[in-house]
Amino acid sequence: MNWFWIGLCLAALAACLGLWVVGGPWVAARGEAGIRPPAFWWPWVLALAPWCAPFVTWRMRRALQVWGPRAGLASHWEVERWLAACVLAGGCGAALAGAAALMGNVPARIGIVSALAGAGLGFIWPDRILRRRAAGRRLRMMRELPFMLDLLTLCVEAGLSLPAALHQVAGHAPEGPLRQSLREAAALERTGMERSRWLQRWAEQADVPGVRNLVSALAQADRLGMSLGPLLRAQAERQRSERFLRAEKLALEAPVRMLFPMVLCIFPCTFLVIGFPVAVKLLDAGF
């Protein structure tokens, strides 16, 4: 019976692969021209998106509007397509959990529960990836901010105005998520948006405390007519000291983080290596 279910699962997998090979180019051709599919499952996302559109809520739209720019999500990821990706991941999770339950010859009730659990975990998996990517991107921005502030200070002290200095930094700073977010925000100025508004938009999308402090300081300096050179230099020094404090905090947390794997993995193996010869000698002695 187990071989029957294994063969059935393999046949279903082969059918899915055949459908993808045959129907993938046709579905991809219906998408927008000039957009390169991010992965082999992109045709399936495009196919499921129209069916998922009626189930999109305003909470989903708001969540993707907030977390999408923070994670650097591409512009062609609409809410319907994101929901389709979640549904596709949920289906894959249910299929894998159900196949494992069938191969394990477990009761039908446990198999159904396993499939439902796999579907739930698969459905939330893209959201977890998005938030984790946003957190990693945020850490990279925090590391890149001091150097970008140094470049901005250099441009301002060289005689450039603040808008020109921001555009120079957005165009010539080292490649990274902070430069990308600043370049996308600075592009809004060409649409007629005021500098204060697109700077505020940049701070909201970056979600970095240092960027928020910089935007607030620039707005205050603009209102009070303060000199920007000393202000930007002080901001750069502050961000550099905060980066050092974060590194020092992580270094102090390292022994605590190493304690769990040492207790769980290293110590039992050490005790086993030490205690096995002793146990053998005791058994040979008649204990």
Automatic annotation (TrEMBL):
Domain Type II secretion system protein GspF stretches: 149-274
Top-level taxon of origin: Bacteria
Keyword list, A-Z: Cell membrane, Membrane, Transmembrane, Transmembrane helix
Compartment list: Cell membrane
Membrane association type: Multi-pass membrane protein
Keyword Cell membrane: yes
Protein name: Type II secretion system F family protein
Lineage: Bacteria, Pseudomonadati, Pseudomonadota, Betaproteobacteria, Burkholderiales
